[in-house]
Amino acid sequence: MGPRLGRRTWLWTWAGRSCDAGRGPWMAVDTVSKEDQGLLWPAAKGPQGEVALARLATDRSIVYRCLGCDQPLILRRGEYKRPHFAHRHGQECHIPAGESVEHITAKNLLAQHVQVNGQLSFVVYYPHHLVGSLKGTNEPGWYHVVSLSNVKAKMEYRFPNGRIGDVVLLDAGTGTPVLDVEILHSHKVDADKAYDLADSGIPWVEVHANVVLTLDLVKPLKTNRSVIPEELCQECRQDVESKVRELTYSINYFRNELRTANRLVSHPLFEHVSRSIFISAGGRDYLVPLVPLPKNISSDEARAFITELSSFGLGAVSEFKLGLRVDMVVPTQLSQELADGTKQSTITKEIDRLSRQKDQLVRKLQGSNQEKGD
Fold first, then answer.
1. What is the bridge-based pairing of β-strands 51-53 and 43-45?
2. Both 209 and 273 in a single domain?
3. CATH number at residue 182
4. How far apart are CA 168 and CA 43, in angstroms?
5. 142 shares its domain with 192
6. Is residue 374 in some structural domain?
7. Cα separations in angstroms, 192 against 137, 163, 188
């Protein structure tokens, strides 16, 4: 490479074999070194203050201005160049610390879209909406398209607690903030800012800058993170209602189990189980009642009791003899759990657990009804 003169680079080039030295003449080309080229902008401000994309701009006579420093920019595009706006030679672009070309451009594009259309649609992930798994993933939840209409946008909106939102959507009628859109480029919203945004009480989402820069804003934006209230869609509502029905069935089942357990323990024949002897069979310990059948209990009642024990899951009837003795085979652990109340306590805890789940889902349904009613 030849000597560098000012901002023009001189290259040795082979121009033909007519040169006695065997080397072609000097040829100057308009290449710019990396440190001299400045910032390349994919978008700029047009004459009316609108955000113009370089890939769509064709008129080089229009005066475009930098989104960062407001200086005039040059539209550059060619057969081998990616269209972009650049500063003139000698101009320096001073953008705020912590900002970047991508971050500033994405904010301006998003704000302009909202201002022009009065709406914004974005995709969020609700991890607690559905119980089933998403198709193609292993995590429960559901993706939703959320649309906000009748809104306007303000960049660098300052909240009462001092935090500044990248692009805040305001109610077009009242001017009340309804959503903060944070643009992610080089770093995510940190824990402190996330806490302050939550403290402001305004829902917020985080969107990657590349999503805004590369996608058609008519399509819903895919969010990187979202902290917004869960409003049940019809599909989720049906799923939640189905889950409530399932929980109700399970709760009623365990309540019947608890009533059966209490009835079995209070039955006179259950005392025989607790006073029986141990035997071992097939590697398991069993109780075998050998005491006489009480005179005030008929054989039919004893048969019903044994059948109920069997259906309750304590074991199976080994042998049943009418008259003086009832022989039963009952697993030791379960019979003892019934006798000391452990089994009943376990069932009660399960009923409480299922009831709490049901109450949460019912409140979710009621809250969604109130939102729609309002």
1. antiparallel
2. no
3. 3.90.1570
4. 21
5. yes
6. no
7. 30, 10, 11
DSSP annotation of 224: S
Task: Confirm if 101 and 39 have CB atoms less than 8 A apart.
Answer: yes
Please give the Cα distance from 136 to 306 (Å, whole number).
49
CB atoms < 10 A from the CB of 193, how many?
15
In single-letter form, the type of residue at position 186 comes to: S
- Of 335, 342, 344, 338, the residue nearest 288 (C-alpha): 335
Which residue matches tokens 């917004």? 228
Q: Is residue 248 part of a domain?
A: yes
Per DSSP, the residues of 296-362 read TS-HHHHHHHHHHHHHHTS-------SSSB----EEHHHHHHHHHTHHHHHHHHHHHHHHHHHHHHH
Paired sense of beta strands 204-208 and 177-184, if any: parallel
- Name residue, tokens 């057969």: 79
Give yes or no: residues 202 and 291 share one domain.
no
C-beta atoms surrounding 211 within 10 Å: 20
Within a domain: 371: no
Task: Give me the domain span that covers residue 211.
Answer: 101-230
Q: Are 111 and 207 in contact (CB under 8 A)?
A: no
Residue 80's contacts (CB-CB under 8 Å, 6 or more residues apart) are none
Residues 286 and 250 in one domain: yes
* Predicted structure pTM score: 0.50
What tens digit of pLDDT does each residue of 80-94 get?
Answer: 778 888 888 877 887
Tokens of 138: 């292993």
How far is CA 128 from each of CA 132, 147, 181, 223, 229, rounded to the nearest angstrom?
10, 20, 22, 17, 11
Residue 93 lies in a domain: no
42-56 pLDDT, tens digit per residue, is 888 888 888 888 888
In degrees and rounded to multiples of 5, residue 297 shows phi and psi of: -115, 120
Q: Are residues 217 and 321 in the same domain?
A: no
Residue ranges of the chain with pLDDT lower than 70?
A: 1-38, 125-143, 215-218, 228-236, 271-295, 297-299, 302-303, 306-307, 309-335, 367-374
For residue 62, count other CB atoms closer than 10 A to its CB.
12
Between helix 342-373 and helix 332-340 the angle, nearest 10°, is 70
Per the DSSP assignment, residues forming a β-bridge with 183 are 207
Per DSSP, the three-state class of 147 is strand
